[in-house]
Amino acid sequence: MSIQCDPDSATTGLMWFRRDLRLDDNAALAHALRQCGRVYGVFVFDREILDLIEDKADRRVELILQCISEIDRLLRQRGSRLIVLHGKATEEIPQWAAQLGVDAVYANHDYEPRRIARDEAVRSALASQGRTFKTYKDHVIFEKSEILNKSGLPFRVYTQYKNAWRAALSDDAVAAFDCDGRPGQFAAPLDDVGIKDPTLDAIGFKKTNLAMTGSTAAARGMFHDFLRRIDGYGETRDLPGITGTSRLSVHLRFGTISIRELVREASDVGGPGATKWVDELIWREFYNMILHHFPHTQTRAFQPAYEALPWRHDEPQFAAWCDGRTGYPIVDAGMRELNTTGYMHNRLRMITANFLTKDLRIDWRWGERYFARKLLDYDLSQNLGGWQWSASIGTDAQPYFRIMNPVLQSRKFDADGAYIRQYVPELAGYSSESIHAPWEADSAEQARAGCIIGKDYPSPMVDHHAARAAALAMFKAVKENPGVGSRG
Ligand SMILES: Cc1cc2nc3c(=O)[nH]c(=O)nc-3n(C[C@H](O)[C@H](O)[C@H](O)COP(=O)(O)OP(=O)(O)OC[C@H]3O[C@@H](n4cnc5c(N)ncnc54)[C@H](O)[C@@H]3O)c2cc1C
């Protein structure tokens, strides 16, 4: 993408990497290189975020460390290095901008309300020093109010948003930003600036069982592998037992790969699989836009009428759901995948969220917060969107009574039980027919499978049909009389 303006050799910029951990096709970096003679790169392990994480074995922190190591290595090849800081970003950025004597700090837009407040604090601290804070759209193709309906209002329904998004798409919108820079343009800070050799230990964290690599090289490898399979995406995307999706959500979350590259290349491949996949990327932009226009959804229902729903707050039942001990194999497999890997297949996110909010009628906010703690790809806008959709209080165009039957979902999407066997190994001895509802197997079959229900694996914690009726009654009461709910 061509950016007007020649670099002024006397101007120095500081590129602040956040959720855009790459040196390629990065909007803010391209602008910094276009406008400044010399550009430093910085990453802050922000204590305002990290201090809130209770479990110091956090896969995301380990992943970030890998991503910034790649940036540092690539910057060193260009005669520079990444400055890594550990402190409050609101203090560190203005302080180091002053020490390095930069004219402007460059960053890409962050859309989460708390991060917007952080950026405003940084902007005003820099302004008081006579420096500027320049921010750019990078994380999405279309942001904020770029896609509105004919009345100039935000869309509330995905399909209409998708059609408008597709109509607005142009070659320019997906063109790559040139971040090559000129020789010597990446500035080398003095040795004593920042943490010397950043390690997990140095920032108070521990190693985890992270099973993926955080880097642009890894993201691109995964994407190219996926492009070979993209034609079948429409058929395979709902099957958790096979690798049918791209698994790129983590890379999108941390920005190790550019959204423009993904949309461009998938569109070049074309066909129904690629079209369906881009539709999913549009869901991501839809939820990003929803949070921007409806920030109340951080804690409250998108549809205000459903704020009256009397959600339950049953801690033992919630703990069983978190641990994957509900007695419904498909639900437990999903929760155990999340707990052991930090990822959960989209179909399972829907099934487990549905189970918590419909079968258990437990507050969707509890589930949303649990996912936030565990998901490697956790993104506030996506998680809120997914949870409110599943709880039927969000932007879903369907009526309120979408209640998934976990056994039917299991039979349909994990027909041979491969996914259940992987994450609930105690059920591995059950046949593909019985594994979805093992409590229905007779005692001889349970003995043959080597897993007695109620002893080696829990009995179902609720009867789905009774739970379904209770959920329907809960929604119906509120729909017919919005003031009726009281918190239970
Ligand atoms: C309850 C719930 C919570 C969720 N929380 C998150 C979250 O915190 N972070 C997150 O990135 N996604 C979230 N999702 C959406 C979705 O489950 C993941 O994006 C997807 O599973 C990632 O796997 P993938 O990269 O292989 O997806 P693919 O199928 O390859 O899709 C490509 C990309 O499209 C986007 N996408 C796919 N499905 C959805 C969807 N249903 N909604 C929005 N975007 C989508 C993602 O960016 C994904 O990486 C949630 C969904 C639900 C139902």
Q: What does this entry look like structurally?
A:
With 488 residues, the protein is α/β, with parallel strands linked by helices. The protein folds into three domains: 8-138, HUPs (Rossmann fold, 3-Layer(aba) Sandwich); 140-179 and 216-293, Serine Threonine Protein Phosphatase 5, Tetratricopeptide repeat; 304-480, DNA Cyclobutane Dipyrimidine Photolyase, subunit A, domain 3 (Orthogonal Bundle), CATH 1.10.579. It is built from 20 helices and five strands. A five-stranded parallel beta sheet has the order 3-2-1-4-5, with helices on both faces. Strand 4, helix 5 (113-128) and strand 5 (132-136) form a beta-alpha-beta unit. Helix 6 packs across helix 11 and helix 15 (364-374) packs antiparallel against helix 16. The radius of gyration is 24 Å and the shape is globular. The chain starts with 7 loop residues before the first strand and ends in an 8-residue tail after the last helix. The model has no long low-confidence stretch (mean pLDDT 95). The structure holds flavin-adenine dinucleotide.
